[in-house]
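To close the chapter, one final illustration. This time we ask the reader to focus less on the individual chains and more on the assembly as a whole: which components sit near each other, and how the overall shape emerges from the parts.
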Amino acid sequence: MTLLSLRNVDAYYGRAQILHDVSVEIAAGERVAILGRNGVGKTTIVNACLGVASVHRGQIAFGGRAVSTIRHFTAARAGIAVVPQGRRIVPGLTVKENLLLGGAVNRKGAWTIDTVFELFPMLRERTEMAGTALSGGQQQMLAIGRALMANPDLLVLDEPSEGLAPVIVDGLADTLRDLAASGTAILLIEQNFGLVHRVAERYYLLSKGAIVETGWLAGLSMETLKKHVAV
Amino acid sequence: MRLWEETDDGAPGTVPEATTERRRYRGPPRRAAAPMLIQTLNGLVYGGLLYVLAVGLVLIFGLRRVVNFAHGSLYMVGAYVGYTVTAVAGFWVGIVVAVLVLTGIGVILDRLVFRPLQDEDPIVTMLVTFGLLLVLEDAVRTIWGKDFLTVQPPPLLAGVVHLTGTSFPVYRLAVIGAAILVAIGLSLWLRMSRVGLYVRASSVDPLTTGMQGVDTEFLSATVVAIGSGLAGLSGTISAPLVALSPSMGGSILIDSFVVVVTGGLGSFTGAFIAAMLIGQVHNLGVVFVPGAASMIPLVLMVLVLIWRPGGLVKAGA
Ligand SMILES: Nc1ncnc2c1ncn2[C@@H]1O[C@H](COP(=O)(O)OP(=O)(O)O)[C@@H](O)[C@H]1O
Ligand SMILES: [Mg+2]
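The assembled structure is written out below.
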């Protein structure tokens, strides 16, 4: 089953067109990466799915169903949870409250606050701390934990390795692989190829708002990679 | 020493004689030597009314980023609706109906004004809500006329209690109690309930809150309705304390802005502390410097902002 599909999407911020004819498709259980340098429109793909960037042409479908008007909550309710760029831990809320917020969609499944604490025991020790007081790596865990609280079919992560030490990125790779193994599809948006090649099986290359190449990660040549991402 | 000249029906006797002066809540009749206790209690009464009004402003500002200049008019409309319903069906029904009517007005205002304006320049929203203030005042003037109207407190809360050698109207104590109940109820709701969590989250980051599956537009509409209903509550419970006039919302609106800013924009706890503080200084002002009474809260605000530019309490708290 297709969990998320963008078909020939043009997306805009106001009158500025950012995405040109973008088509992306992720099926259940897949591990897919979108690669591209800074400013090519990676986050805009996420924003189009959240109703932040406006789609003037093409179609976005969640769980095989085309959506005509996308609101901020539409994707979440369709089983697509986003770990946004910069993590967006909500200020003024504790670690636990940030997690509870993630459960707002009320989708039942294996993930509860207890199973999230089993996955990230360090969060359990800090339940009452302000979420924003955590270190970068811990905030990333909190953001992933928050997304898991929605029991998503698809987890979208926008540059999760940004600003993290290499050893933390290793841990992140393991976590994402485990999640994928347990059946959650993963859409990993990254410039960090080190993380991508440990997690994804398929890729899309984005350049200047357009998909320039797609295929299996195993077949991605070094030259193409160097041309489109800093390695 | 008899310092408090009240009739036994507990009406605090603040109905002003016809003067050209702008009507506002002025606390008790001026008695320079009223004892400390009475002063403090009267400060709490005004602080309580201010809190219930200001917390609605905080809610509306928190979720819609709109500074609602019409909030004092909602208070005024609440008092008038309470007046009319009280005359027909009694005080308690009057309160319930006024709160419901104002909640409904809140739903309409949100749909027609606040929601479309939330991404606009603050100047635009100020002008529009200011225009709304004028419209509501005129509407009330047309329906109820411009003569002063008065409301009697309900028989259950009539009379006075005797306190260490002096007496104090029961109704005023009830107003303090009502404000405390609102404060407790709101803080339990915001702290302990799911929806309260979404409200707090949405007031700092609506996009992230929405991304988690919360319909933040619906949430905001609900919160604006509650804020408007609270303005109605504040208006009806103040009705037995003041003379109703179409312009009665003016100065209490200014004081509640002072409360919101002094408390720390967006802070509920701050609003409570600031309301009680402003209630006290306002009342002292009325007694000791009647000529400059309305300036004293502003002076306090400036002092607090010099000391702590963000207000007493950080937003979200
Ligand atoms: N809110 C916005 N309004 C207008 N332009 C934006 C906005 N956000 C991003 N952009 C522009 O859109 C382009 C793509 O940005 P983005 O999707 O964030 O890139 P990436 O995530 O690949 O780094 C950039 O040129 C950026 O300047
Ligand atoms: Mg980005």
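Residues A 13, 16, 18, 36, 38-44 surround adenosine-5'-diphosphate (ligand 1) (CB under 6 Å). The two ends of chain B are 45 Å apart (CA to CA). With these observations in hand, you are ready for the problems at the end of the chapter.
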